[in-house]
């Protein structure tokens, strides 16, 4: 039944899977080693890897059996199989900041500390610090980042010029002033737009939080969303959307809704993940594609501190009986060559070298490359609380965002959220 449920690409892979499935489930490593079973998410990265697979199979003498699933199906599969201690997944694509800590704590992810140091040509030091930090657990490498995201400032060049502004804002005070000036020049256009939903906004709000000098927890691991810095960040973010955002701004927007406002020409500034930039620059998707510019995340009192995170990584199932060959796949799929190929197709990579290579940035807008470079230099390696139950935590720390947008007391909302978040952390620690 397991074979029938799999999505296997290529006749030869299907034949190999059928012949070797029972052997892979046993203790005979020599039999299992001929097929590496890889579970991947539906993503452009996955499609690119599938096209390159014949090269890997020819070089390695191995066969790769791919299961490809949507995010929800992927999570369901992992919950069932990893909880059961199944060995029939070798390599898995996972979200380090959404489930990485839970997976590592439950010992689902193999320790790759020796592997990442074993090949100097592969060069683990080439990976950016933020994504590496996010794929580690208790100072051990448990994953390799494959796709990165940074928060940058999207803006409309034409609206800035109309308002008499010659350059995008460099800090948050300038952003507020510029948004105010643009809206004054044309009241039909919002000065600023961003995510507003309680949970979806948390990731984009995080860069504001860090740039004000705050974080979700303090250095001792205690809840810190009611620090003075956090209160200032909540008040700023909520106030900017309330005062300079769209009229009657909704408090349940995720990125599609916020992006739509920007691409329909209804906002001057928008802070968002760089990975979504083609939605703004593609004429088929955006009415303002020819006037969009990009800039580094504006600096706050603590400087410009956007997140620089791995949205996806590859890990190896700790119960896999084929870990050696699983690593061969991971090593190849995250190599400099494959990362460069992915980057050229529009998938932002985690290696420093691909951003320094003109080939790796040729398809990106020049100002976006510069904004990303600034983000990777000073970026923070997480964009949400690093906990086991991430979804629940986001609901708690996101409430003051909604309250601030609605004009409620942001400081009081932060105090209430902090008490709830500390209880949540205490419960997780039990």
UniProtKB/TrEMBL annotation:
Cross-referenced Gene3D superfamilies: Periplasmic binding protein-like II
Keywords: Signal
InterPro entries with a match to the protein in the record: Bact_solute-bd_prot1, SBP
Record's signal peptide: 1-25
Pfam families listed in its UniProt record: SBP_bac_1
Name of the protein: ABC transporter substrate-binding protein
Species: Micromonospora acroterricola
Species lineage: Bacteria, Bacillati, Actinomycetota, Actinomycetes, Micromonosporales
